Structures are given as C-alpha cells and as structure tokens.
Please model this.
Amino acid sequence: MGQYDGKRVVITGGTSGMGLATAKLLTARGARVLVTGRAKASLDAARNELGKSAIAVASDATSLADIEELATRVKAEFGELDVLFANAGFGRFVPFESMTEAVYDEMLALNAKGPYFAAQKLASLMPPGSAIVFTTTIANEKGMPMISAYSAAKAALRSLTRSLAAELLPRGIRVNAVSPGPIATPILEKTFPKEMAAQFEKQMREGNPMKRFGRPDEIAAAVAFLAFEATFTTGAELPVDGGLSQL
Model:
C-alpha cells in the first residue's frame, strides 16, 4: 500500500523541473496524478517517465478556455480532486528600463492570473480536507534586479494564498504556497547564454547560506508536506531556499 493511494492530484506545469519531480514522488507513493504542459515533446516524455498512473494533458496555463477544459477533463478522470499544485510559471530577465507591456502582461498572466483561475475552476471539485499549493518565489521577500514583473506577479500570488485560504476555509480546503530559492532546473540554460548562466549560477551558489542549489525533489517533498501532512496549516508560505530569504 502506498502512502497516498487513491489520492487525486493535478499539477500544472508538471512535465519538467519541480512539477515533474513532485509528480514522480506522488505517483511513487500511490497517487493518481494529472500533469499539464504545453510542449508535445515534454508531455510525451512525462507520460513515459511517470507511467500508467499518470495522465499528461496539453493545457496553456494563461488561457481561461484551456483552464475550463482542464476542469472538465479532471472531473471526467477523477470525479473529485484532493490536491491542486498550481506550479506553472517562469520568469523573464528584463531590465526595468527595457520592460515592455507584452512581457509584463505575460508575466502577470502566467504567474498570477493562471493560478487564480485554475484554483477557481478546480475548487468546485475539491471536497473538505483537500488542499491547494501555489509556487511563489523568494523574490517575494528579497528585491532582485532584472525580474521586476515576475516578482510582482509572484507577490500577488503570495497575497492570493492568504485571501483564498480565508475564503475557502469554510469549505475545508487548505491553501498554502511553496517558495523556492535557487533550484537546479534547466531554466537557467534556457534563459541565458551558456557562459552567463554559469556565472549567474556561481553567484547564486556562493550567496546562499547552504552554498548550493536546491534539488527539485526537495521542492517535491515540501509540496507533499503542504498537500497532505500540514493539516493545521493554511495561508502559509514555506521557503525552500537554503536559508536565503531568512539568514
């Protein structure tokens, strides 16, 4: 018997990085997991890696129509939902002076609007005792250059965590957030040229109290805790950052 046998979980942005690591942990412990992503290659890879206990669905986290279709699919597959891990999101490194309306809108749509409406559309499927977990960032606490729009969106998501925790409390749904620091995912290589990515990684490692990057499985463990174990916790944000936001 697995620890989470019979539990039904949706992970947006679940085909790579922290989302995929969380899906792997939960399926290994018996949960039924539906992950979303946009790229066919990553969806196919996730299906192969996660096996028959997982479902991979193409869904754009910024599209309300896609989110509504996702809710319909989840109801058809699961009936009810025990956990929503609203993880889809990323940042763009843009100097304040160079920020465009298009990039600003993209950051707010993906990192704040998307999670908001995912929670709205899926909460109707969640019984008492279920949980929502958002992915925020330590940039809520620390001012960092080049990511002003991303940070603003994630700060809005942190506020949403508190607001929804209060609003959904009478329905028995807990709402919390995991706040990653520097985590070893492919995002740096996708964002920067190779040499710049290496330099940025070195700076982040040296500036971290633990002198290393976190691992995606460390985020996964924190998400599982918030989703299933932290039954007397709601409205909270759990930093998983090597102490960077605290020390």
Summary: The two ends are 40 Å apart (CA to CA). The chain has one domain: 8-186+216-237.
